[in-house]
Amino acid sequence: MKDVIVVVGAGQIGQAIARRVGAGKHVLLASLKEDEAIATAQAFLNAGFQVSTAVADVSCRESVQALVKTATSLGNISGLIHAAGVSPSQAPIEAILKVDLYGTALVLELFGAVMAPGGAGIVIASQSGHRLPALTPEQDGALATTLVEDLLKLDFLQPAQVRDELHAYQLSKRGNSLRVMAEAVRWGRRGARVNTISPGIIITPLANDELSGPRGASYRRMIDGCPVGRAGTPDEVGQLAALLMGPDGGFITGSDFLMDGGVTAAFKFGDLAQPLAQP
């Protein structure tokens, strides 16, 4: 049977990774928006890839189950690229937690049960998860291992405990890396691996929404104040993901890779440690 690479979230980062790991395999592009998936598929077809599309809502168990069924009908699932999500300027608190936290845990659970031996997965988290203050060991454990359908019932994820959309996003992305660490144990029993990449500001439509939104000044300050002095590109994320998903990454699983141009370092030890001046 054909090897299948499933891309959940057919945006710029998911596409960049799929271009590097999808040659000679069947690429299944899944998106919440059918027109986005179709347009992306056409570009892949024009470049010589074998590709098909699906509509999927990661916040709905039935929808992800249907995606798994479609994927397994195409062949052996040798790769999963989970790049679906919403940013603090794109959605309210409840939606961020439902899509970015619950949705990621759901995708990991259901695809982890069908990954082929030797397969590998990548979850796109965020630098924001690294700037959330330390949680308690109990909270870390709960984010990592709570049953998916009980995840959003955790006390510290309730409305009174989540300050704003950015806090919800940070909690979700911290949860993603913790969840991947726990899932790596389960995936390992099938001979498969899974890791997280936590990018900084990568120029995509999502990042552009943030740059033009209420947190735009903070985003521009991060770009200007980081050691690299620029934003990143989806292709740079794709290069790291290809390493992690390929044979050279065979000893790497359950790990999180921060690639933010040094933004987090600058927050800890550089000029970004100073608060943003208010107008």
| Biggest pleated sheet | 7 strands, parallel
Number of domains: 1
Structural class: alpha/beta
Q: What is the CATH C level class, in words?
A: Alpha Beta
Could you tell me the CATH topology label. Answer: Rossmann fold
Oligomer: single chain
Q: Mean pLDDT score, rounded?
A: 94
- The radius of gyration over CA amounts to 18 Å
Second-tier CATH architecture: 3-Layer(aba) Sandwich
Distance between the termini: 61 Å
Describe this structure in words.
The chain is α/β, with parallel strands linked by helices. It has one domain: NAD(P)-binding Rossmann-like Domain (Rossmann fold). The protein has ten helices and seven strands. The model has no long low-confidence stretch (mean pLDDT 94).
Give me some keywords for this one.
279 residues; alpha/beta; Rossmann fold; seven-stranded parallel sheet; 10 helices
Summarize the helices and strands and which ones pair or pack:
Elements: E1 3-8, H1 12-21, E2 26-31, H2 34-46, E3 50-55, H3 61-74, E4 76-82, H4 93-112, E5 120-124, H5 137-145, H6 165-188, E6 193-199, H7 205-211, H8 216-225, H9 234-245, E7 256-259, H10 263-269
Parallel strand pairs: 1-2, 1-4, 2-3, 4-5, 5-6, 6-7
Task: Write a concise synopsis of the structure shown.
The protein has 279 residues and is an alpha/beta fold. 45% of the residues lie in helices and 15% in strands. The chain has a single domain, classed as Rossmann fold, CATH 3.40.50.
